[in-house]
């Protein structure tokens, strides 16, 4: 057993990482699906979308062949509507709320229809927006992820000049560096970033990290306001013996490598254990299989009933051939010659319900051992505590604390997205960016 790269032929990589939710191939296909919509009054899908996209309206526009209008309806609520149409966990959002579910029929394919309109707009480069005249204000945005981009777009639209400071060499945040490659390709992410920036009035300074290349105090002095959208990025340690052995990697770094290199360069094991059952764990597991791992086992300390991933994600991992061990927690990593060879796990059981009704996993004292040559840790992410406390932002375990206006404890400094909520979805970050921009415009006395 060894961890090695270049396991498959180019055709296998291409097919394993092809689009997991292919778009409508024909105009007719989109039209037939759009015509299934009941155009509900007070639509539950719109209420379940964190960015409140007017779903019945954009679908109605597709039925009348007004694709430009449809794309505008989507982008008005969510400027990253194209990306969201590929990555949103729709079964727990808009599509999960579709009334067809109550009729035991397939819900409307809202995301696919959203993808149809928005990708056409991006491909055709339709100029859907024009900035208001310059209002004389300048705002710094830190982080070019979904929150930062949505904030920058809304500010620029209102005539504000925006400078984005981004530590990486590309924009898009975790869309570019985290989300599974079979959901969004690097080319798609670049096109979406270009689409947002095509409005004008936004300059991105790549390779500039807050706390290293720029300081918050400088930005606060130089600009009329600052928005922080730096996300959460550090993987949580397991805190068990042997974690430092070669072959134990964290999911964020593994996926980052995968998203920034060609597939044949990514080393993966024969027998991989993935710790965790969230979206990141599922992405790490399914992508390991698609890179050529022979056996991938996901380990979770609770039961399937409490899994944090969605059923759809679990089904993808099952179809890919991943195995699951429920009620188990990693206890020790054992190695040979500095390389991981085994993972010892404790068997868990669920304890009594706490005040919230949640039953915590309890160690039964029994253990079992798995033979592995790679362990991927996906037990959650922790915020950039050093950067946040270094900038004197009030925080709780690194998560920035904001008030109802998205303002931090520092006057003129606002924040939103994963760096505040600790890690949700892209669509939540987009809404946080919109909220931040609205608060900044009010703070600057600009009526939109
Ligand atoms: C592996 C993985 C898979 C995921 N899959 C999905 C999915 O399928 N669907 C979904 O909806 N969500 C998914 N998510 C969650 C989603 O990606 C995030 O919720 C979303 O990207 C948060 O947006 P954000 O702008 O707040 O932060 P981020 O996307 O993290 O963007 C923050 C940006 O700030 C930059 N930055 C960080 N520190 C600094 C600094 N000091 N100075 C300057 N710039 C800095 C970062 O480089 C980054 O570009 C996934 C997350 C992970 C980790
Ligand atoms: S942004 Fe996401 S949740 Fe909202 S309507 Fe589109 S696919 Fe559904």
List keywords for this structure.
binds iron/sulfur cluster; 448 residues; 5-stranded parallel beta sheet; Fumarate Reductase Iron-sulfur Protein, Chain B, domain 2; globular; 18 helices; FAD/NAD(P)-binding domain; alpha/beta; binds flavin-adenine dinucleotide
Give the integer mean of the pLDDT values.
95
Spatial order of the strands forming the largest sheet: 3-2-1-4-17
Largest sheet: number of strands, sense, barrel closure: 5 strands, parallel
Query: Radius of gyration in whole Å, from Cα?
Result: 23 Å
Counted by DSSP, the helix tally is 18
Name of the CATH homologous superfamily of the largest domain: FAD/NAD(P)-binding domain
Which ligands accompany this protein?
flavin-adenine dinucleotide, iron/sulfur cluster
Share in helix: 25-40%
Count of separate structural domains: 3
């Amino acid at each position: 057993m060894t961890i090695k790269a270049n396991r498959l032929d180019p055709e296998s990589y291409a097919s394993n990482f092809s689009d997991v939710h292919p778009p409508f191939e024909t105009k007719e296909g989109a039209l037939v699906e759009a015509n299934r919509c009941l155009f509900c009054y007070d639509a539950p899908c719109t209420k379940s979308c964190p960015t409140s996209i007017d779903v019945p309206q954009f679908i109605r526009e597709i039925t009348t062949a007004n694709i430009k209008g449809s794309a505008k309806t989507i982008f008005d609520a969510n400027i990253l509507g194209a990306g969201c149409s590929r990555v949103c966990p729709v079964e727990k959002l808009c599509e999960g709320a579709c009334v067809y579910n109550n009729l035991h029929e397939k819900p409307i394919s809202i995301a696919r229809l959203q993808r149809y309109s928005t990708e056409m707009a991006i491909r055709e480069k339709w100029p859907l927006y024009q900035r208001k005249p310059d209002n004389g204000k300048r705002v710094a945005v830190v982080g070019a992820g979904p929150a930062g981009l949505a904030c920058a777009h809304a500010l620029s639209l209102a005539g504000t000049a925006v400078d984005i400071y981004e530590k990486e060499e590309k924009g898009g945040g975790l869309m570019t560096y985290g989300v599974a490659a079979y959901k969004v390709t690097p080319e798609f992410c670049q096109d979406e970033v270009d689409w947002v920036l095509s409005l004008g009035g936004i300059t991105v300074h790549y390779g500039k990290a807050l706390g290293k290349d720029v300081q918050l105090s400088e930005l606060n002095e130089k600009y009329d306001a600052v928005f922080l959208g730096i996300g959460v990025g550090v993987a949580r340690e397991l805190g068990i013996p042997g974690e430092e052995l070669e072959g134990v990697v964290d999911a964020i770094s593994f996926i980052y490598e995968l998203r920034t290199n060609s597939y044949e360069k990514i080393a993966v094991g024969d027998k991989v254990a993935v710790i965790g059952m969230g979206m990141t764990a599922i992405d790490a597991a399914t992508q390991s299989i698609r890179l050529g791992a022979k056996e991938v086992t996901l380990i979770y300390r609770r039961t399937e009933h409490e899994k944090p991933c969605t059923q759809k994600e679990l089904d993808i991992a099952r179809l890919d051939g991943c195995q699951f061990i429920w009620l188990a927690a990693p206890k020790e990593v054992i190695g040979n010659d500095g390389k991981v060879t085994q993972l010892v796990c404790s068997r868990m059981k669920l304890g009594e319900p706490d005040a919230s009704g949640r039953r915590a996993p309890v160690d039964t004292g029994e253990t079992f051992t798995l033979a592995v040559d790679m362990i991927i840790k996906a037990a959650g992410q922790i915020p950039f505590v050093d950067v946040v406390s270094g900038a004197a932002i009030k925080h709780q375990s690194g998560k920035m604390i904001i008030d109802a206006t998205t303002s931090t404890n520092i006057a003129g400094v606002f924040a939103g997205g994963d760096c505040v909520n600790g890690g949700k979805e892209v669509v939540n970050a987009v809404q946080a960016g919109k909220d931040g921009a609205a608060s900044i415009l009010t703070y600057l006395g600009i009526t939109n």
